[in-house]
Design brief:
Distance between the termini of chain A: 15 Å
Shape of chain A: globular
CATH class of chain A: Alpha Beta
Oligomer: heterodimer
Largest interface: A-B, 27 and 22 residues
Radius of gyration of chain A: 20 Å
Number of domains of chain B: 3
Order of helices and strands of chain B: EEEEEEEEEHEEEEEEE
Shape of chain B: elongated
Strand content of chain A: 15-25%
CATH topology of the largest domain in chain B: SH3 type barrels
Number of strands of chain B: 16
CATH superfamily of chain A: Bira Bifunctional Protein, Domain 2
Largest sheet of chain B: 5 strands, antiparallel
Helix content of chain B: under 10%
CATH architecture of chain A: 2-Layer Sandwich
Number of helices of chain A: 9
Number of domains of chain A: 1
CATH class of the largest domain in chain B: Mainly Beta
Structural class of chain A: alpha+beta
Largest sheet of chain A: 9 strands, mixed
Order of helices and strands of chain A: HEEEEHEEHEHHHEEEEHHEH
Chain lengths: ~325, ~190
Amino acid sequence: MTTSWKPTADITTLKRRAQYLADVRLFFAERGVWEVETPILSPAAPTAPYLDSFATDYTPIGTQVKQTHYLQTSPEFSMKRLLAAESGSIYQIARVFRNGEQGRLHSPEFTMLEWYRTELTLNQLMDEVNALLQQVFNFQPVSRLSYRGIFEFYLKINVFNCTDEVIKQCAIQRIKGLPEGLDMDRDGWLELLMSYIIEPRLAAMKLPLFIYDFPASQAQLAKIKKDSVGNKVADRFELYIDGVELANGYKELLDADELRQRFESDNQQRQQQNKPEIPLDENLLAAMQSGLPECSGVALGLDRLIMLVLDKQAINQVQSFSFEHA
Amino acid sequence: MASVSTNQFKGGLKFMLDGDPCSILENELVKPGKGQAFNRVKFRNLKTGRVNERTFKSGDSVESADVMEIELEYSYTDGEFWYFMDPETFEQHAADANAIEDCKKWLKEQYVYTVTQWNGSPLLVTAPNFVNLTVTDTDPGLKGDTAGTGGKPATLETGAVVRVPLFMNIGDLLRIDTRSGEYVERAKA
């Protein structure tokens, strides 16, 4: 019981982390993208069924009133309100919170680099992520492959026209030790194949990769479009380095009505799972109603990136005090 | 029996799986995309010694296993059981052939072994990392060969056969690494 007060990362690591943060700020300053700060606490939160926000109560002095506020899981909603107010391109290095998630690559509290570029296509945003990784973090250039392509390459299935059953059987045969009678939807099985089969192969090949054109059902807050062969796809990418999921980028959905529908269907799923419904962010919906400019945005897990670049094994090795030692 | 939830999983945790006690080696949270979370667990089946993998839905529970590790001194065998004694209470514990299989060739009286007990009876006996054992049979030593090139087989007092340098003789006491089964150095008596 002698060392528990000490930092989880060594001081040399923390100084290098500080330098990377300074270099990231310089990278954006040179590109005319300005740094913003937005509230960590909000009465609204994302509705995604498997994303749990921390909740706390605001109590005005002298009252017994309890007003639930959520700690942000990403600064996305308030940054989009700035975009709707004609901020132009902006970035933020934000502390974000996700309840329950802890492990080698997960922490209930971590640092996210999130930025939005007006007028950039998703392809151009991938170019910019690539430039950041090479200039600031000295990584090799990142290759690109579609979601359809990666599943064809590693699993020999066409994710857009095979049946749910084919995907399920593929997962059950390839992944050993799954819980018996596991029941999930198509996307659940696809995500499992990605985690258990594809990510380890990307890690083994040391191949940094953007995966783009996700199934439309995994659109989240991205626009939906047709790919080159006519499949409905989400205009979205994910960045993998050494098999670690590092960043998630969208051609941002602009349609407030569609977003409301996605939020409400999330809340229905939450109800079915006996999880509390989450109040919709009406401010975000109103901002989108008034007009969000065409933009592309990406959120990147800075702890994971710094972990990889410093050749560490777990994100708590690049955090001053990990969650268990906070 | 108490149950443990996946959020308490960590290396060394003992739990029951398909009727066998198991020990967790690695536990990783898998949270794919926006989907539900899983715990991917690598574990050793303490009965068979085999390492395997299993995925649990995060939040599920398993039964904990009443497994304890204690340090006991080896006393003797009657051919059916191997008897280990608690050096403080002098209590005897009988281990069967399965439990001592892996360390049988390193069993020497009065040495202390780690005994994994399940529901109060020895499940697995693990040898200390190093033991000193006497050579009971080997070809005559070659004087002058101190470089230890080549080597030769030597039978030790426990019946184990290890490769030793050519200059070793019957009656020499050797330090052996039980994990690799290799000769380390000549031991001081």
